[in-house]
Structure formats: structure tokens, C-alpha cells
Specification:
Length: 311
Amino acid sequence: MVEFKAFPSIEQYRHVVKIVRERAQFDGKPLPTLMFYGSVKLHGTNAAVGFDENGEMFFQSRNQLISPEQDNAGFARWASANQNVFPKLKSAVIYGEWCGQGVMGGTGISQLPKMFIPFAILSGDRWWSPEELKTFFFHSGLRCIYDFPSWTMLIDFSRPEEFQNYLVDLTVKVEQQCPVALALGVEGIGEGIVWWAASCEGFNTDGLIFKVKGKKHSETKVKTLAAVDIEKIGNIWELVATIATPHRMEKKLEGISVDIKNTGTFLKAVTEDVMKEESDTIDASGLPKTDVMRGVSMAAKQFFMERVNSI
């Protein structure tokens, strides 16, 4: 039976710091030092190829099952026609980024033909390690994200602020020149880096995954790319401008047709994303959440209507 399996949410650094602190406190353990794997965050759309218990293939976007007839940027159509490049599995999902010309623009990778670059495999309830991914795809027609420049780092969560500069420095270098695009023969900017916690005996690292994006691709206007503490903002419209950025709304526009009848769908997508990602920022500001979210809705509506009127 085909079952949609969504890729987990990728958090901000500050969110992971908070989760680690809460888990350590709940378990009565000292704050850990954890190993993280970093890989280039590609500017495209989340896509996946799944295999049911019989090894039959199916396709996903970030939010739903798709097919060549009901597709997402042509991924299912391509994957269906190129099934031979996927090593066969059972009861597993191969997640990756569908990127290149015509998917998302504005980065080095968007200058290249469309391609699928896997970055994770979920088999049952187990996530494969980067080493397993590289070995698995070695003889296939695909290159996984760890075939390109990647990083490892130890983060001591008793002093997470000391690792901000390193995270920011790496992100700025990726934004200046995407390592994946460069390896494929193209110069152009990158989006950022995704960091995924390695398993650690004695500490639960499930779901400890965060992203650090360059300023051109951040959903939030921030002074510090890898913030540990929340930036204090005391004005509603300043806060709205900070969290309801054009990039955030561009991302939420994926899969939504620019038609006035879809205005409500778009506003719902934006406000839900802001509530999920920025609730702690809104709470820390001390500003009324209903007023802030009303401002977010107004900004999202203005953005969407400008798109509608430009057609």
C-alpha cells in the first residue's frame, strides 16, 4: 500500500538549541556535544521516490503524492521515465532536491538542466547515514548530495553561541559560490547549508536538523544567520517586514497557481509557515500575536495580488 511520508521540517539553529536543552533537562543529562553533517542546501523543490513493500515505485512532492498526470515541476514525469537510475528498495523513500532550469531561479544550480540530487533515505523508521548514501548511489546514475563538498562539525550545546561564526562563515562562502554548481561546471550563488545530527549513544538526536541560509535566501531578515537567541523587535510593521519576507512568500507560492481564486490558499500557507517558524520571535517581541498575524496576512495578500496583476 502506498503511504505518503513527509520529509521532516528543517528547523532554525535556535530551535535545535532549544530542543536539545529541553531533552537534556527532561532526561536529567548534561548538555551534549553532538556531531553534525553539513550538506549544500539546493534551491529547488523537495521531491521523493518511494518504494512500497513490494518494491513498486511511487512519487512525492513535499506535501503529497504526485504522478506524471498530477505533477510537481515535472519531477514525477521525469522519474517515471528514468526508473532505471534508481537502485531498487522496499518500504523506503529516497528524498532529494529536484532543481535546475525551470524549477527555481536565482542560483548557480538553476542554470543547469533539471536534475534530482538525493539527500536522504528513510527505510522503515531509520535514516541512512551519509556514508551509506554515497555507497548506495555509487553505481547508480545519480549523485547524492554527499558526493559534493560537505562538512562535519561538533557542536557543544553548553556553549552554542561559540559555533555561530563558523556556521555563518561557511554559509557566506556557499552563498557566494554554490559548491554543487561549481562542481558541475557553473558559477553562481548558493542558498545555504543543512546540518543533520549524527546518531549519538545516550542522547536522542531524532529530528535535530537545521538550516543556515545566506541573506539572499533567508525566509527571515536577520542580523545573525545562525542565531541562538531571538532578536528583539518592538514595532509591529518592523516585525512583519522581518518575518514576512519576499523569499518566504516565494517559497510558499510553490505549487499554487497565481489566480485570484487561490488568494485564500496562499494566505493560509504563508501564515501557517510564519506561525510554525516564528512563533518564538513573535512571543519574545511582546507584541499582540493577532495584530502581527493580521499584518503578515496583509503583506502576503499584497504580494499575491501584485503577482496576479502582473499576469
